[in-house]
Design a protein that fits this description.
Low-confidence stretches: 1-6
Number of helices: 20
Mean pLDDT: 90
CATH superfamily of the largest domain: P-loop containing nucleotide triphosphate hydrolases
Strand order of the largest sheet: 6-7-8-3-9-10
CATH class of the largest domain: Alpha Beta
Radius of gyration: 25 Å
Helix content: 25-40%
Strand content: 25-35%
CATH topology of the largest domain: Rossmann fold
Distance between the termini: 32 Å
């Protein structure tokens, strides 16, 4: 049926004056979304951009009627001109998944682990009584649509890779042919190559099916690659809205400009002065790690060799599962089966006695990926930072431990330190938590810092602050830093050298200028080509 001019002019989704409050345990009400309005035309792709806690996810959950019981909502969510939230769950339920559907952030948590992927898509069709008598054919059609091979429907979620799981989640969301798709950070947990594939899939589906899409993200490069329009949120309000080209070329709001300035662009990597040679602090030679499994042994790291000098930041780059974290764990002496040679300041680090390993860990500290899991919720900031001093008997005097903890907080930019020292993790932002984790790693004054994706969980502006801090520390303290990242843009901006890993081995290494502008290996070129640029002209 050909749409009338009225149908063509009507938005697929319109949100008018949406306000959302959450009631706290003490009876207070916090307003998290403050009079938000936006509209989405059929086939249009809108990027909803902003940092954690600004109200992005809350907004799209409200559109589906999925907010918790302590939420109060006012305003209108119009789907083809019909206010679907006017009567609460009674009026939104008939439209949920059939007319408007959602791709949730964590692909694994979207599935029931005890049922096959095909069974779960079938369940969505049966609950909504769609494609009656043709359900099996529809499941296969959906999996074909998202590029999953035959037989995927018989597999369980844990048997799929991260990218395959995300494709299956998209297939399930499209099962009942919705007109609007809401995608909440659909690529956050994916490496850059798989992220590129998923974003291209969403664009293709939007264009082929005429699907209106809202893409929630904190990554401006993702928006530039996949969206036609963008809205920037902060503190529950939309600050600025326009085409992605308009926002990039002439952002009107200072906050939008800050977001762009904090987003690394690999196309703008410039050659850095090569530092004078320094003694090798970390030397890794022919490092290999094997894991035993049901099907025999699997080599996770294969014959890896490299060095990190004093005052040098080396980035270890590659896709998920390539062996980056395993390499760091082996250096820390956490994997007894590791073979080869690892030395720190000339002292061996593999196959050493317990007492020697204890001395090694005073010299080598590690920062973990997730600041929400790496800090003990029962410990104050003081407890967390002082613990290494106690464990390694580096400082027995309580007052001196307190002073060193305060100094470590000041060193990582948490100033005045007295305001943070007695807080618990839940009283800190994500960026503050990661700075505390870094402070705990610094308090022993290590020679070498191993950082496993230290900023991947942080917002873009907070990420910049933490990375600048690491760069300052390696200069000021002459500390060697080995940093894992899947983001080649970040590595190019902050590292002195980049090492590219694939399938457990090193395929390329060099300065950022060499790796980015003159890559020797096709895999490195693939990584570079997969990075979304915040410039829409290059992202297209």
């Amino acid at each position: 049926m050909t749409p009338t001019s009225t149908d063509a002019a009507r938005p697929a989704l319109e949100i008018r004056d949406l306000r959302i409050w959450f009631r706290t345990d003490d009876g207070a009400e916090n307003e998290t979304v403050k009079g938000l309005s936006l509209s989405l035309a059929p086939g249009e792709r809108l990027g909803l951009v902003g940092e954690s806690g600004c109200g992005k996810t809350t907004t799209i959950l409200a559109a589906l009627g999925l907010l918790p019981a302590n939420a109060t909502v006012s305003g209108h969510v119009l789907l083809d001109g019909v206010d679907i939230i006017a009567g609460g769950d009674r009026t939104v339920r008939p439209h949920r998944w059939t007319d408007i559907a959602m791709v949730f952030q964590g692909a694994m948590s979207a599935f029931n682990p005890v049922h096959t992927v095909g069974w779960q898509i079938l369940e969505a069709l049966r609950v909504h009584r769609r494609f009656v008598g043709e359900e099996d054919a529809r499941v296969r059609e959906l999996l074909d649509l998202v590029g999953l091979p035959e037989g995927t429907e018989q597999r369980f979620p844990h048997e799929l890779s991260g990218g395959m799981k995300q494709r299956a989640v998209i297939a399930m969301a499209l099962a009942c042919e919705p007109k609007v798709l809401l995608a909440d950070e659909p690529t956050t947990a994916l490496d850059v190559v798989v992220q590129d594939q998923i974003l291209r899939l969403l664009v293709e589906l939007s264009e082929r099916l005429g699907l209106a899409l809202i893409l929630v993200t904190h990554d401006l490069g993702v928006v530039a690659q996949s969206c036609t329009r963008a809205a920037v949120m902060r503190d529950g309000e939309i600050l600025e809205e326009g085409t992605v080209e308009q926002l990039y070329r002439a952002p009107a709001h200072p906050y939008t400009r800050t977001l762009f300035e904090s987003t690394p662009d690999i196309a703008q990597v410039a050659a850095k002065p090569i530092p004078d040679p320094s003694p090798a602090l970390l030397a890794v030679e022919s490092l290999s790690v094997e894991y035993a499994g049901r099907g025999g042994t699997r080599r996770a790291v294969s014959d890896v060799s490299f060095e990190v000098a004093e005052g040098e930041l080396v980035a270890l780059v590659g896709q998920s599962g390539c062996g980056k974290t395993t390499t760091l764990q082996a250096i820390m002496g956490m994997l007894p089966g590791a073979t080869g040679s690892v030395s720190v300041d000339g002292a061996p680090a593999l196959g050493i006695r317990r007492a020697d390993r204890r001395r090694l860990r005073e010299r080598v500290q590690m920062i973990f990926q997730d600041p929400y899991e790496s800090l003990d919720v029962r410990f104050t900031v003081a407890d967390t930072i002082e613990e290494p001093l106690l464990v390694f008997r580096a400082c027995r005097d309580r007052a001196e431990r307190r002073e060193r903890a305060l100094a470590a907080l000041e060193a990582v930019g948490l100033s005045p330190a007295e305001q943070f020292i007695d807080r618990y993790p839940h009283q800190l932002s994500g960026g503050q938590r990661q700075r505390v984790a870094i402070a705990a790693g610094l308090v022993l004054r290590p020679a070498l810092l191993l950082a496993d994706e230290p900023v991947s969980m942080l917002d873009v502006s907070v990420r910049t602050g933490v990375l600048r801090l690491l760069a300052e520390l390696k200069e000021r303290e002459r500390m060697g830093i080995l940093m894992i990242t899947h983001d080649l843009s970040t590595a190019a901006e902050y590292a002195d050298r980049i090492i590219v890993m694939r399938d457990g081995g090193i395929v390329e290494s060099g300065t950022p200028d060499e790796v980015v502008h003159r890559p020797r290996d096709p895999y490195t070129r693939l990584l570079i080509d997969s990075i979304p640029s915040p410039d829409p002209a290059r992202a297209a």
